[in-house]
Amino acid sequence: MVHLYQCTMGDSIMRIGLPSLFAALMPFWSAAAMSNPPATQMRTFHLDAPLARVFPLFTANGERAWAPGWEPRILSGGEQRGSSFITTAHNGSRVTWIVTDYRPAQGRVSYARLMQDSNMGLVDVSCTQMRGGTDVSVRYTLTAVSEAGESFVAQFLEDENYTRMIGEWQAATRAALQLPATP
After folding, report:
1. Structural domain boundaries of the chain?
2. What is this structure's pTM?
3. 18, 106, 171, 180: which has the fewest C-beta neighbours closer than 10 Å?
4. In CATH, which of 3.40.50.720, 3.60.130.10, 3.90.580.10, 3.30.530.20 is domain 37-176?
5. What is the pLDDT of residues 42-73, one digit of tens each?
């Protein structure tokens, strides 16, 4: 269906069809005007412990038990939705976080994060009771906000790097829970 718009100019009526308008404007549209989609990675690992023990490890304060250097400065709230905190990344950058979803009974927590002058995005953690323990899925969805951020996001979410990081998370959370190491 074509919509027509009428503009009255004196005695004359000018009709412009949307397809004609779009066709006229297309030469002025550039690929630079279109943004790139956010980059994302997700991996899942298993811990031989119940959800009630595993889930708290993925809160701002709970991560202190297994992530070296993780020292969140709580700005507001605690774990609940809307709580916010600041951390320092491995490269020294300041990262601001806000809890966007917190449902401990369902094993779900999500954060929005901004690494100043680098990137912003979402971190979603889902813990599911499975196979006598808990499966933990971690998804990072990031968008660069600078050229340096583009490099960071590409490197951080590169398959091998992301897989290695999640493997490190599994080993560290397993140790925090005092579970035996797996081969």
Report:
1. 37-176
2. 0.79
3. 180
4. 3.30.530.20
5. 999 999 999 999 999 999 999 999 999 999 99
Q: Are 63 and 70 in contact (CB under 8 A)?
A: yes
Amino acid at site 93: S
Closest to 96 (Cα-Cα) out of 60, 61, 136: 60
Give per-residue pLDDT as tens, 74-133. Answer: 999 989 999 999 999 888 899 999 999 999 999 999 999 999 999 999 999 999 999 889
Q: How far is residue 76's CA from residue 82's CA, in Å, rounded to a whole number?
A: 8
Nearest-angstrom CA–CA distance, 89 and 70: 8
Cβ–Cβ under 8 Å, residues 27 and 111: no
65 Cα distance to chain centroid: 22
Q: How far apart are CA 126 and CA 134, in angstroms?
A: 10
Q: Nearest CA to 88 among 68, 62, 102?
A: 68
3-state helix, strand, coil in the chain (%, to 5): 30, 40, 30
